[in-house]
Design goal:
The complex is a heterodimer.
Chain A: H1 3-10, H2 14-30, H3 37-62, H4 70-86, H5 92-117, H6 121-140, H7 150-157, E1 159-160, E2 163-164, H8 168-183, H9 185-195, H10 197-202, H11 207-233, H12 244-254, H13 266-285, H14 291-317
Antiparallel strand pairs in A: 1-2
Helix pairs in contact in A: 2-13, 3-8, 3-11, 3-12, 3-13, 4-5, 4-6, 4-11, 5-6, 5-11, 7-11, 8-9, 9-11, 12-13, 12-14
Chain B: H1 9-19, H2 22-40, H3 47-71, H4 80-97, H5 102-127, H6 131-150, H7 160-167, E1 169-170, E2 173-174, H8 175-193, H9 195-205, H10 207-212, H11 217-243, H12 256-266, H13 277-296, H14 301-333
Antiparallel strand pairs in B: 1-2
Classes of the chains: A mainly alpha, B mainly alpha.
């Protein structure tokens, strides 16, 4: 195999990029509506929130932890933002930062509890996720907040051609993520802790600080996703975040993140989110039962993990 | 010989919670909760509420068992709810659409759950991938597949015998509770007196050591997951008996937290290797008591989630504290 092909195959997201391109072409051929301006806009809009949710989980996966409360934090932040704008009449410029900060505080709580008690992040976030959902439902009694500032909602549904205004946010966050993990010290430290906690600690990296940073970042990203969701829906629904859990794991893992931690791929996660959005969009266009999405999601994760293992074995013997 | 100083009240309290068995302290907490709730709301001890409590508790117990048998191996089963729902809908299908006699339909549903659990175990063992990811994706796979096949239409025309069984009682105790207790006894026997049970415990305690000692680790893991599937479907069937209908709305993610809470509260270690059937039953009792108490107090189902989360945190913290004090005590004595 010549060196160019070998180099292409060694890039870990080349596989899913090929799948995404193939999927795009297939859909364009199969469904006349796929390439329409409106559909491309819908496709891009569905990317926005999923990207942030995927990044939220990716950050915790990087440090070797799991955050089961992404959806719960999302729901809580959504209703807090909605409540501040609706019930309290606060302007957007005040309500949104407060809500996002609360999401960060929730993430901080996760991280702090994890390091203080030494209990696995899985259990901590399972418990706090339940607690946040409880607070969410307790405050709203499952009733959404509808009265949001019109400019905010306009931003959520507005577009320039096929590009939704919302898309700016995840694009900026993607660049931030890339820089964070490749060029900043906290980002490299995060991956070091995820890769080998013991070695990282011996190298002088503060485990406590890194884990707390990771969880706080996760909370902030989930909060941002929630704000976008509220803008997109035009109302603050307490059910926001309910379906985020499996997607938050699917995208990073399909994108090549390691479950043990220490390795994430921002580009891979991005392409994986595109792939998932294509699947969802395609299934709607071809009029397939929407339940197939859930089924395919599970199958995709299994497939991705299996391929990753194959690649790990292969590169080990290469 | 050291002088024995009379331990202070605080020290005695700490020793009790530190050294006393988890199960005993759990039992005391449940009793305390009952006292508190019955004082705050006289309706708590009413016949109607106790009935409802007993049947809920039975189902929660079996859900807890389903997770417990996987926790023992050091893994986890996130597909408990999905398998339960699949068994529920399969039973509805077999009873209503195929018109099978009740024992056959129930057996078919149980077999479905066992098979799904077996698939989980097989995938975990063959691929070597973490049980978290396998069961997370299989949960999505199973519930998605079930929704595709059934189009989420509930089965409402089940034979009346099912509902009647769900309401039957032997004296003050519901039949469902008896079923749960019977399952509990069966599990106790499995893990205490059979070779397979001890092999599973060894696998959970230290998989590498067990493997090198000749324990059939793969078989133990597959068996545990199949058993978990069977128990999840049993819980689903009990729910069908209770509701007299088979609907896809039950199970799913609603089972996830209680399925972890009951075993962990009861002393089953997340890392595997230690199990407490009685503890799981008491843990389920705690969960059900909390839910029922909050309901009777009209606090609203919403706050239940919050309490559950806090309870889980408190339980794990307490277990950590006890583990540390036990270690400290051991070191002091040497």
């Amino acid at each position: 195999m010549n060196t160019l092909a070998r180099r292409i195959f060694s890039v870990e997201w080349s596989g899913i990029l090929a799948a995404a391109i193939a999927g795009f072409i297939a859909l364009a051929l199969l469904s006349p509506a796929f390439l329409s301006e409106f559909n491309q806009f819908v496709l891009l809009r569905s990317l926005c929130i999923t990207l942030l949710v995927a990044y939220a989980q990716m950050v915790t996966l990087g440090v070797g932890q799991l955050n089961l409360s992404v959806g719960a934090i999302g729901g809580l932040v959504a209703i807090i933002a909605g409540g501040l704008m609706d019930a309290q009449g606060m302007p957007v410029i005040v309500a949104v930062p407060i809500a996002v900060l609360i999401g960060g505080a929730a993430g901080f709580l996760n991280g702090w509890l994890t390091v203080r008690t030494g209990i696995n992040g899985f259990i901590i976030t399972l418990a706090t996720g339940s607690a946040f959902t409880g607070i969410n439902l307790g405050i709203t009694k499952a009733i959404p907040f509808y009265d949001l500032p019109p400019a905010f909602v306009a931003f959520g549904i507005g577009r320039a051609g096929i590009l939704p205004y919302l898309l700016i946010v995840p694009l900026i966050v993607t660049v931030v993520m890339l820089v964070f993990f490749r060029r900043t010290i906290p980002g490299r430290q995060l991956l070091a802790v995820g890769g080998n906690e013991h070695a990282a600690e011996l190298s002088g990296i503060s485990l406590t600080r890194t884990i707390i940073i990771a969880h706080t970042l996760s909370g902030l990203l989930a909060a941002t996703a929630a704000i976008l969701a509220v803008a997109q829906l035009g109302s603050a629904q307490p059910t926001i975040g309910a379906s985020w859990l499996i997607i938050s794991f699917a995208a990073p893992i399909i994108g090549g993140a390691s479950l043990q931690g220490g390795h994430v791929s921002v580009v891979g996660t991005f392409i994986a989110v595109v792939l998932l959005a294509l699947i969802q969009n395609g299934l709607v266009l071809i009029n397939v039962d929407p339940y197939w999405v859930q089924f395919l999601l599970g199958a995709l994760i299994l497939g991705a993990v299996w391929i990753n293992r194959l690649r790990a074995v292969h590169t080990g013997t290469d | 010989m050291t002088d024995q100083i009379q331990p202070s009240m605080w020290e005695r309290f700490r020793t009790f919670f530190g050294k006393g068995s988890t199960q005993l302290s759990l039992f005391i907490i449940v009793v305390c909760l009952w006292v508190v709730f019955s004082n705050l709301a006289p309706g708590f001890l009413s016949k109607f509420n106790l009935n409802s409590l007993g049947r809920s508790m039975a189902i929660d117990m079996v859900i807890g068992f389903s997770q417990m048998v996987v926790l023992v191996t050091g893994g986890m089963n996130l597909a408990v709810g999905a398998i339960g729902v699949c068994a529920v809908m399969m039973s509805g299908f077999l009873l209503q659409d195929m018109g099978l006699p009740i024992p056959l339909a129930l057996a078919g549903a149980l077999l479905t759950g066992t098979l799904l659990g077996w698939i989980n175990g097989f995938a975990i063992v063959k691929s070597g991938v973490n049980s978290f990811i396998i069961t997370l994706s299989s949960a999505s796979l199973f519930s998605g597949g079930m929704l595709i096949l059934t189009k989420a239409v509930p089965f409402n025309n089940l034979p009346t015998a099912i509902g009647a069984f769900g309401r039957m009682r032997v004296g003050p105790v519901s039949v469902l509770m008896l079923v749960a207790i019977a399952i509990g006894i069966g599990l106790l026997i499995l893990y205490r007196y059979t070779t397979l049970g001890r092999q599973i415990l060894a696998t959970g305690a230290n998989e590498r050591a067990a493997r090198m000692s000749g324990v059939p680790v793969d078989r133990a893991i597959i068996f545990s997951h199949a058993l978990s599937g069977a128990l999840a479907s049993a819980a689903g069937l009990m729910l069908v008996a209770r509701l007299s209908a088979a609907m896809p709305a039950v199970g799913g993610e609603g089972w996830l937290l209680p399925s972890f809470l009951a075993p962990v509260l009861g002393g089953t270690l997340l890392s595997g290797g230690y199990i407490s059937v009685i503890g799981t039953m008491l843990g389920a009792a705690l969960v059900t008591t909390l839910r029922s108490g909050l309901l009777v107090l009209q606090v609203g189902n919403f706050w239940f989630q919050l309490f559950l989360g806090i309870a889980l945190l408190a339980a794990v913290l307490l277990e950590r504290y006890r583990a540390t004090t036990a270690l400290r005590r051991e070191v002091k004595q040497t």
